[in-house]
Predict the 3D structure of the following.
Amino acid sequence: METRQNLKLWNWLKLAGIYGVILLALYIFYLAQDILTPFLVAFILVYLLNPLVDKIEGTGIQRNYALLLIFLGFALALGLVVLFSFGAIKDEFTLLSKQIPEYFSKIKTSLLANASALEEKLPYLKKGTLQVLLNEKFADIPSVIGPRIPGLLISAVGLVTNTLIVLFLTFFILKDGRGFRKNIIKIIPNKYFETALCLLYEINVSVGSYVRGQIIDCTIVAILSVIGLYLIGLKYAIMIGIICGIMNIIPYLGPIVGMIPGIFVALVDHQSGGMAVSVVAVMMGVQLIDNVFVSPLAVGKSVDLHPIAVILSVSVGGAILGIWGMLLAVPIYCALKVTFQILYKGIIEYESWDAA
Amino acid sequence: MPKIFKTIRDILVGEKTEIVKVLERVPIFAGLSLIELKKIEIITHEREYMDNEIIFNEKEPGAGMYIIKSGSIKLSKKVDNKQVFLMSMTEGDFFGEIALLDESPRSATATSAGKTKILGFYRPDFLDLLKREPKLGSKVLLKLAQMIAARLRETTESRVKGTADGNETEP
């Protein structure tokens, strides 16, 4: 009986040890976050495209040609999108770049007006302090943006390089990924091999279906938002709608953050509270459609996560890694959950790794 | 076959590797072409075991089937707290194929006897193959089903005769 107790304890220790290693890996990942960005984007693309490559391969076409086909199709689709919507997006951009200085002055005036009102109500504030502060912070736009232009150019070059790296990585991971995985798991000791293999497979399925579901979901939310905002006649409907779609990747918090640009434009540009209310109404409508019809189909029950767990992991991710942390929180949580389930089943319930 | 065709085939498909030679003798891969066997080869994992190493334990959830490439293995079962030897298998034999279908617990323990090389063919890869290459996958699946059907028929007959002793030979 006592040896049995010891065995139980030993198994729990093993489980804890494995979790220690995983945490260490996540910490290294945290330290190397800047270099990893293109890899992460590539992985997201791989998850998105892999089922398509598999499907084409299933018809008998070789994997390499299937990939070529997809990349060409992708380029073509991108070309068409740019061709048809470029005009509209360009118009929004030019309008925005022309009006940014105007926005700044509008905000400045309204803030200054509010500042004097505030000072009257708070007698202990020295007269003019807030005005001086605001004038300092909201200096002329050219003097704020001017020195940053070289930096902006450098980051544009970096963006092009990173895009190429991402495409390169995506292509080769899709092409040789299976071989990579086979070689990596080759080094796993015999005793843990079956568990490790199943584990990798389950993580792949769980994270893959989450990523794919979210991206489809985001695309649909973006399209619905653009349509809705366009109908209520908001300026920059396309840009704001796309931002809403992108923000939707972050569960629960994203949609709320996504409303901010819309409300901002409604208040500053249209200068109407009514418009702001309709923006909120449109966004909430989109969320309602998303949560009732789209999300259950796209993300579905493949990833069974409790809302509290999701919010908690998103907050923790955000605190540690910022925006990337928020994006990665749920997939990492999914992977850890699957890992725990399988290891628990293997080590504690079946006591698989005793005989050693 | 004229030599020229053989040469062309060798260039396009490549020659039979050692693993393919092992695979083509396994009943569930019988009747597959060389190209198909090579696709199977890609998703098998070659594992090496020392003497008396456990390949899988009784009652553990199974992950896949194994084909012996070289060496031999022993199957045993725990009866009243004692390991009872069931049978041994050698080169070209395979075991654990039920685990390709579901995660049911293994019904025996498999241990290597001497230095043994085995090929693992696991359920996740098999399910993936069914999705990716449905034609090839269903060929394998059909063979697997036929084999299990034959075994079921045997069991039923022996039970009708009243000779079933409850011992399973299939891990």
Summary: Chain B touches chain A through 26 residues (CB under 8 Å). The mean pLDDT of chain B is 84.
